[in-house]
Amino acid sequence: xxxxxxxxxxxxxxxxxxxxxxxxxxxxxxxxxxxxxxxxxxxxxxxxxxxxxxxxxxxxxxxxxxxxxxxxxxxxxxxxxxxxxxxxxxxxxxxxxxxxxxxxxxxxxxxxxxxxxxxxxxxxxxxxxxxxxxxxxxxxxxxxxxxxxxxxxxxxxxxxxxxxxxxxxxxxxxxxxxxxxxxxxxxxxxxxxxxxxxxxxxxxxxxxxxxxxxxxxxxxxxxxxxxxxxx
Length: 231
Prior knowledge:
With 231 residues, this protein is an alpha+beta fold. The chain folds into two domains: 3-51, no CATH class; 107-230, 3-Layer(aba) Sandwich (Endonuclease, Chain A), CATH 3.40.960. Helix content is 44%, strand content 18%. The protein contains eight helices and eight strands, in the order αββααββαααβββαβα. The protein has helices at 8-13, 35-43, 52-63, 83-88, 96-106, 115-127, 169-188, 206-230; strands at residues 19-23, 30-34, 67-71, 78-82, 133-136, 144-148, 153-158, 192-197. The chain has a four-stranded mixed β-sheet, sandwiched between helices. Strands 1-2 form a two-stranded antiparallel sheet. α5 packs antiparallel against α6 (115-127) and α6 packs across α8. The longest helix has 25 residues, at 206-230.
């Protein structure tokens, strides 16, 4: 049930319930509040948000403080966004869905993509609302599996072909040389490159794939936390 759809009449209708799960109108996350809290805020015509942080940001946007109206680069819908967030991202989208759609339409893929890469891309697009590039060849003139521009952070998912001569020693040497060139190019551009060994991932299974996503997510979250502390 959306916060905007909750009314005093609705609360009275479900008088047997002590609490309700609703959606924060700012961050879109589900949270739970008891009936008395909801009733008091609705009586005072107050917006119901999940945290003090979201309440402050939501109020500032409604009052026009530190935010302005911009247009989504994918669907062209207008929405409000903080100036600080606009400065951090090259592109602006009204939702994660639009961000992923835009990325899919504008990225340059390599010829072969594993099911693991496709799975992780979907998970990252659903998890984060900032720009993430997949299989982009423009950053270092060589393909990066995952690149987060705002964090200058990249990931490579190296399968078994990067470690064993499946197609012969010459092919393995070529792959290793290419990996070394990527690392050097990232160092020159001050991009932190994280190499993830996925050679043990031979058959796609969601329960195994999620473990690789969690590795990437933990690194990104750690980087975000570190950046916030510096600020």
